[in-house]
Amino acid sequence: MKDVDVRVYFIMGSFNAAYGEPLEVLEQALRGGITCFQLREKGPNALQGDEKLAFAKSCQQLCQAFGVPFIVNDDVELACRIDADGVHVGQDDLSAAEVRRQIGEDKLLGVSVHSIEEATAALAAGADYIGMGPVYQTGSKPDAKPVAGTSRISEVAALFPELPIVGIGGITAANLDSVIKSGADGVSIISAIAGAGNPEKTARSIVKAVQYIGVNL
Ligand code: 3NM
Protein backbone atom coordinates (compact mmCIF):
# COMPACT_ATOMS: atom_id res chain seq x y z
CA MET A 1 0.00 0.00 0.00
CA LYS A 2 1.45 3.36 -1.03
CA ASP A 3 1.25 6.50 1.07
CA VAL A 4 -1.29 9.05 -0.08
CA ASP A 5 -2.43 12.17 1.73
CA VAL A 6 -6.21 11.96 1.46
CA ARG A 7 -7.01 14.45 4.23
CA VAL A 8 -8.75 16.94 1.92
CA TYR A 9 -9.52 15.12 -1.30
CA PHE A 10 -11.20 17.38 -3.85
CA ILE A 11 -13.16 15.78 -6.71
CA MET A 12 -14.39 17.69 -9.74
CA GLY A 13 -15.55 17.41 -13.33
CA SER A 14 -15.62 20.36 -15.71
CA PHE A 15 -19.41 20.67 -15.09
CA ASN A 16 -19.15 20.90 -11.28
CA ALA A 17 -17.75 24.43 -11.12
CA ALA A 18 -20.71 26.59 -10.11
CA TYR A 19 -18.97 29.95 -10.51
CA GLY A 20 -16.16 30.67 -12.94
CA GLU A 21 -13.92 28.48 -15.03
CA PRO A 22 -13.35 24.93 -13.78
CA LEU A 23 -9.57 25.25 -14.07
CA GLU A 24 -9.72 28.46 -12.04
CA VAL A 25 -11.78 26.62 -9.40
CA LEU A 26 -9.19 23.83 -9.27
CA GLU A 27 -6.34 26.30 -8.98
CA GLN A 28 -8.11 28.06 -6.14
CA ALA A 29 -8.75 24.75 -4.37
CA LEU A 30 -5.05 23.91 -4.73
CA ARG A 31 -4.09 27.29 -3.32
CA GLY A 32 -6.45 26.60 -0.45
CA GLY A 33 -4.44 23.49 0.40
CA ILE A 34 -6.29 20.42 -0.91
CA THR A 35 -4.10 17.33 -0.52
CA CYS A 36 -5.42 15.18 -3.37
CA PHE A 37 -7.45 15.70 -6.55
CA GLN A 38 -9.64 13.39 -8.63
CA LEU A 39 -10.92 14.26 -12.07
CA ARG A 40 -14.44 12.84 -12.26
CA GLU A 41 -15.54 13.65 -15.80
CA LYS A 42 -18.64 11.49 -15.83
CA GLY A 43 -22.36 11.76 -16.64
CA PRO A 44 -24.49 13.53 -19.24
CA ASN A 45 -22.54 16.82 -19.12
CA ALA A 46 -19.10 15.28 -19.25
CA LEU A 47 -16.52 16.26 -21.84
CA GLN A 48 -15.59 13.55 -24.31
CA GLY A 49 -12.65 12.63 -26.53
CA ASP A 50 -10.06 15.33 -27.22
CA GLU A 51 -11.83 17.89 -25.03
CA LYS A 52 -11.71 15.52 -22.08
CA LEU A 53 -8.06 14.74 -22.80
CA ALA A 54 -7.12 18.43 -22.96
CA PHE A 55 -9.03 19.23 -19.78
CA ALA A 56 -7.41 16.30 -17.97
CA LYS A 57 -3.94 17.45 -19.02
CA SER A 58 -4.63 20.98 -17.78
CA CYS A 59 -5.87 19.67 -14.43
CA GLN A 60 -2.81 17.43 -14.18
CA GLN A 61 -0.42 20.32 -14.85
CA LEU A 62 -2.05 22.40 -12.13
CA CYS A 63 -1.85 19.53 -9.64
CA GLN A 64 1.80 18.94 -10.53
CA ALA A 65 2.58 22.62 -9.95
CA PHE A 66 1.22 22.26 -6.42
CA GLY A 67 2.68 18.79 -5.78
CA VAL A 68 -0.77 17.26 -5.34
CA PRO A 69 -1.61 13.75 -6.65
CA PHE A 70 -3.78 13.74 -9.77
CA ILE A 71 -6.16 10.78 -9.90
CA VAL A 72 -8.53 9.88 -12.74
CA ASN A 73 -11.97 8.45 -12.04
CA ASP A 74 -12.75 5.25 -13.91
CA ASP A 75 -11.00 6.02 -17.24
CA VAL A 76 -7.95 3.75 -17.04
CA GLU A 77 -7.01 4.39 -20.66
CA LEU A 78 -6.87 8.15 -20.09
CA ALA A 79 -4.95 7.73 -16.84
CA CYS A 80 -2.32 5.57 -18.55
CA ARG A 81 -2.13 7.81 -21.60
CA ILE A 82 -1.29 10.94 -19.60
CA ASP A 83 0.62 9.11 -16.84
CA ALA A 84 -1.74 10.19 -14.06
CA ASP A 85 -0.78 9.39 -10.47
CA GLY A 86 -3.63 6.96 -10.09
CA VAL A 87 -7.13 5.71 -10.82
CA HIS A 88 -10.28 5.61 -8.70
CA VAL A 89 -13.02 3.07 -9.43
CA GLY A 90 -16.44 2.26 -8.04
CA GLN A 91 -18.10 -1.13 -7.72
CA ASP A 92 -19.80 -0.79 -11.12
CA ASP A 93 -16.60 0.07 -13.00
CA LEU A 94 -13.78 -2.20 -14.12
CA SER A 95 -12.80 -4.46 -11.21
CA ALA A 96 -10.16 -3.10 -8.85
CA ALA A 97 -7.94 -6.13 -9.49
CA GLU A 98 -8.10 -5.56 -13.25
CA VAL A 99 -7.33 -1.85 -12.82
CA ARG A 100 -4.35 -2.71 -10.63
CA ARG A 101 -3.13 -5.12 -13.31
CA GLN A 102 -3.43 -2.41 -15.99
CA ILE A 103 -1.89 0.51 -14.08
CA GLY A 104 0.90 -1.46 -12.40
CA GLU A 105 2.13 -1.39 -8.83
CA ASP A 106 3.52 2.16 -8.81
CA LYS A 107 0.25 4.01 -9.37
CA LEU A 108 -2.36 4.86 -6.77
CA LEU A 109 -5.56 2.84 -6.74
CA GLY A 110 -8.68 4.05 -4.93
CA VAL A 111 -11.90 2.06 -4.66
CA SER A 112 -15.39 3.11 -3.52
CA VAL A 113 -16.84 0.58 -1.09
CA HIS A 114 -20.03 0.30 0.92
CA SER A 115 -19.45 -2.70 3.16
CA ILE A 116 -16.82 -4.68 5.04
CA GLU A 117 -16.92 -7.30 2.26
CA GLU A 118 -16.18 -4.70 -0.43
CA ALA A 119 -13.44 -3.14 1.70
CA THR A 120 -11.85 -6.56 2.18
CA ALA A 121 -11.95 -7.21 -1.57
CA ALA A 122 -10.54 -3.75 -2.37
CA LEU A 123 -7.62 -4.33 -0.02
CA ALA A 124 -6.94 -7.75 -1.58
CA ALA A 125 -7.03 -6.17 -5.05
CA GLY A 126 -4.32 -3.71 -4.08
CA ALA A 127 -6.22 -0.55 -3.12
CA ASP A 128 -4.12 2.25 -1.61
CA TYR A 129 -7.19 3.89 -0.07
CA ILE A 130 -10.96 3.42 -0.07
CA GLY A 131 -13.85 5.86 -0.31
CA MET A 132 -16.98 5.29 1.80
CA GLY A 133 -20.29 7.03 1.40
CA PRO A 134 -22.58 8.67 1.06
CA VAL A 135 -22.07 9.87 4.62
CA TYR A 136 -24.70 12.60 4.16
CA GLN A 137 -27.22 13.46 1.47
CA THR A 138 -25.49 14.40 -1.80
CA GLY A 139 -26.74 16.27 -4.83
CA SER A 140 -23.64 15.44 -6.88
CA LYS A 141 -24.31 11.76 -7.62
CA PRO A 142 -27.81 10.98 -8.86
CA ASP A 143 -27.30 7.22 -8.44
CA ALA A 144 -25.76 7.46 -4.96
CA LYS A 145 -26.68 4.75 -2.47
CA PRO A 146 -28.87 5.60 0.56
CA VAL A 147 -27.23 7.79 3.17
CA ALA A 148 -24.95 5.58 5.26
CA GLY A 149 -23.78 7.86 8.06
CA THR A 150 -20.45 7.07 9.69
CA SER A 151 -20.96 3.73 11.46
CA ARG A 152 -19.60 1.62 8.60
CA ILE A 153 -16.52 3.83 8.41
CA SER A 154 -15.87 3.06 12.08
CA GLU A 155 -16.27 -0.68 11.49
CA VAL A 156 -13.91 -0.75 8.51
CA ALA A 157 -11.36 1.53 10.23
CA ALA A 158 -11.30 -0.83 13.23
CA LEU A 159 -10.86 -3.87 11.01
CA PHE A 160 -8.20 -2.40 8.67
CA PRO A 161 -6.39 0.32 10.64
CA GLU A 162 -3.65 0.58 8.00
CA LEU A 163 -6.02 1.23 5.06
CA PRO A 164 -6.72 4.96 4.51
CA ILE A 165 -10.45 5.76 4.37
CA VAL A 166 -12.05 8.87 2.91
CA GLY A 167 -15.64 9.70 3.72
CA ILE A 168 -17.71 11.09 0.85
CA GLY A 169 -21.13 12.57 0.25
CA GLY A 170 -22.52 15.90 1.41
CA ILE A 171 -19.43 16.76 3.45
CA THR A 172 -18.73 20.40 4.34
CA ALA A 173 -16.50 22.29 6.77
CA ALA A 174 -19.43 22.29 9.19
CA ASN A 175 -20.08 18.52 9.30
CA LEU A 176 -16.69 16.89 8.65
CA ASP A 177 -15.94 16.61 12.36
CA SER A 178 -17.91 13.40 12.89
CA VAL A 179 -16.53 11.86 9.67
CA ILE A 180 -12.95 12.21 10.88
CA LYS A 181 -13.84 11.23 14.44
CA SER A 182 -15.49 8.05 13.14
CA GLY A 183 -12.11 6.88 11.87
CA ALA A 184 -11.82 8.35 8.37
CA ASP A 185 -8.40 9.68 7.38
CA GLY A 186 -9.88 12.36 5.18
CA VAL A 187 -12.88 13.81 3.42
CA SER A 188 -13.77 13.71 -0.28
CA ILE A 189 -15.66 16.75 -1.45
CA ILE A 190 -17.25 17.96 -4.68
CA SER A 191 -19.90 20.64 -4.20
CA ALA A 192 -18.77 22.27 -0.97
CA ILE A 193 -15.65 23.43 -2.86
CA ALA A 194 -16.64 23.39 -6.57
CA GLY A 195 -19.92 25.13 -5.77
CA ALA A 196 -18.45 27.69 -3.41
CA GLY A 197 -18.39 31.40 -4.23
CA ASN A 198 -14.80 31.43 -3.02
CA PRO A 199 -13.29 27.94 -3.52
CA GLU A 200 -9.88 28.95 -2.15
CA LYS A 201 -11.26 30.27 1.10
CA THR A 202 -13.62 27.31 1.45
CA ALA A 203 -10.87 24.77 0.76
CA ARG A 204 -8.65 26.52 3.32
CA SER A 205 -11.37 26.38 5.96
CA ILE A 206 -11.87 22.66 5.29
CA VAL A 207 -8.12 22.03 5.54
CA LYS A 208 -8.03 23.93 8.83
CA ALA A 209 -11.05 22.05 10.17
CA VAL A 210 -9.44 18.67 9.35
CA GLN A 211 -6.11 19.75 10.85
CA TYR A 212 -7.87 20.98 13.95
CA ILE A 213 -9.24 17.51 14.59
CA GLY A 214 -5.62 16.42 14.50
CA VAL A 215 -5.41 14.01 11.61
CA ASN A 216 -1.90 12.72 11.26
CA LEU A 217 -1.41 10.24 8.49
N1 3NM B 1 -19.55 9.21 -4.60
P1 3NM B 1 -20.64 16.09 -2.79
S1 3NM B 1 -21.17 10.40 -3.06
C1 3NM B 1 -18.83 10.95 -6.22
O1 3NM B 1 -21.31 7.61 -1.95
C2 3NM B 1 -19.60 10.51 -5.06
O2 3NM B 1 -19.73 6.79 -3.20
C3 3NM B 1 -20.34 9.02 -3.55
O3 3NM B 1 -20.27 14.97 -3.86
C4 3NM B 1 -20.47 7.72 -2.84
O4 3NM B 1 -19.39 16.37 -2.01
C5 3NM B 1 -20.46 11.30 -4.31
O5 3NM B 1 -21.06 17.26 -3.61
C6 3NM B 1 -20.73 12.74 -4.54
O6 3NM B 1 -21.76 15.57 -1.95
C7 3NM B 1 -20.03 13.63 -3.54
TrEMBL record:
Class in the EC hierarchy, top level: transferase
GO molecular function: thiamine-phosphate diphosphorylase activity
Signal peptide: none
Reaction(s) this enzyme catalyzes, per UniProt: 2-(2-carboxy-4-methylthiazol-5-yl)ethyl phosphate + 4-amino-2-methyl-5-(diphosphooxymethyl)pyrimidine + 2 H(+) = thiamine phosphate + CO2 + diphosphate; 4-methyl-5-(2-phosphooxyethyl)-thiazole + 4-amino-2-methyl-5-(diphosphooxymethyl)pyrimidine + H(+) = thiamine phosphate + diphosphate; 2-[(2R,5Z)-2-carboxy-4-methylthiazol-5(2H)-ylidene]ethyl phosphate + 4-amino-2-methyl-5-(diphosphooxymethyl)pyrimidine + 2 H(+) = thiamine phosphate + CO2 + diphosphate
Cofactor note text: Binds 1 Mg(2+) ion per subunit.
Pfam families for the chain: TMP-TENI
Family as reported in the entry's similarity comment: Belongs to the thiamine-phosphate synthase family.
Protein name in the entry: Thiamine-phosphate synthase
Source organism of the structure: Sporosarcina jeotgali
This protein's encoding gene: thiE
